[in-house]
Amino acid sequence: MCGIAGIIHRDAAADIGTEMTRMLQSMKHRGPDSSGYALFGPQSDMVVIRFKLADANDRRGFDFKERLERHRQEVETRLSKIGASIDRVERETEYAYRAKVRYEGDLKALADYLEDVPGCEVLSMGHSLEIVKDLGDANEVSDLYRLGGFEGTHAIGHVRMATESDVDISGAHPYWAYPFSDVAVVHNGQLTNYFHWRRRLERSGHRFQSECDSEIIAVYLAEKMADGVGLEDAMHQSLEELDGVFTYMAVTSDSLGVAKDEMAAKPLVLFESDDLVAMASEEIAIRALIDHEIDTYDPYEGQVLAWTR
Amino acid sequence: MDTVGERRITYDARGLAEPNAEVPHVSEIDGGRAVFDAADLTTRQINLELRSLIYEQGIRDVTVRNPGAKHSIGVGILQRCKIRYEGSLGYFGLGVIDGPEIVVTGRVGWSVCENMMSGVVVIEKNAGSLTGAAIRGGDLVVKGGVGARTWIDQKGGTIMVGGNAGSMTGFMMQRGRQIICGDVGDGLGDSMYDGTLYVAGKVKSLGIDCVPGEWTDADTELIERKFRMYGLDKPDSFQKFVCGKQLYNYDNLEPSEKKLVI
Question: Residue B3: its pLDDT value, please?
Fold first, then answer.
């Protein structure tokens, strides 16, 4: 089933960590397996990297801690070798890390080099994007990663009921458009031409970490945007080229878009005000955010909407 | 956190089921009327409170404040009574009802009034997809717009929409009437068996075997009466659509069956 949510503030920044947690927690019944966030904090000239060195349900051997520590040191060594000067590397949880580095080079070269470290998966890279995802409901993940008080401008989130791939962090949404800076996607639905697009994108050199169909949407859109197509146009093209049932949200450093397939098979409720736009699979998530009476509506089939700050 | 062994998943796998819920008895009762605030109640508590008021205490006029877009509210009410929801309902609200007169001041999510048997439901704002699925009787009035596949499998009753409707409206409808004041998406009345559709706005495309129908005085009378009843603004003119009956081949035998008969 899965639940997705998105919020974009038109002008000011806000505590999007708390806001997104409230939205996702109210939709816990749509997916209790894992919860994920793609949060856009203040724009930085440094690159923020979120990565993990093990999965939440990996077996812990006797040398688990030492192995992770060794791999973390290897990541730092590799960052220095490729020419990224480390501002800081913080351990967020037992196995998840957040690094801030000064780096001007090619992100793909950097991401590939880091992922070559055993167990390492880069969850996100960008100048403002940070992806946080883990097993459990939104409150658990938010507590674990201390997301309350995360100041930012826009965010998307996902609660997952795993149907097609494993319950682990690699299979959790949102997906970063590896290796494109500051692009992420959450998706509710199934793509029926997944393998077609996965092979096509793999032929142009992209890597896919999971078996999850949603992962290709992010790369598909980011590749088009890298060729100069705008987010909204790229999403319009996706309605023709991606087959299946879906409602997905895509975010870039300054915009948030949502697309619904031709069958309108997956729900979405939308609320727009002068200050913010909020949307979710269920109205209950928007109500968790806004305490007064509001007018909401469902976008129609084949509709693409995008907001830019 | 324990670093030996797998990380424990701590969520409650029973989901939102509340097998032990009890009637909260939070209503303010004044004569034959009752009011309660649903903001802090769970879905099951709200439904238990409603049932207790209507069935056990014999109250026939209930107001529910702050339903907060919770799902499955007010289902299975089989009694003539008045219920007013001050706020929005989530998915699967007001399903399988028989008799009540209901007003929702907010909007409703997917599958509202599924399998409604009789009564009146007036929704002041928008409704989601699958509105009035398999409805068998009564009047369902949505003053705003509705989503896709509205009244799929309609078997009776009258439905009115003040705004626009999405794709596949009236899919497989078998009886009943739909009056839509705004525009309609693709595939209107696709595979319908019978019944009548009235559309005031533009129709993006007609579904298979849905054809324009001939306007009669009975149509004029119905439209005027319904708009008068619910105090809606009546558009100047409507187009009428009915089933073309080209897909009617119930009595035709399959090739393999023909051999058996011969």
Answer: 39
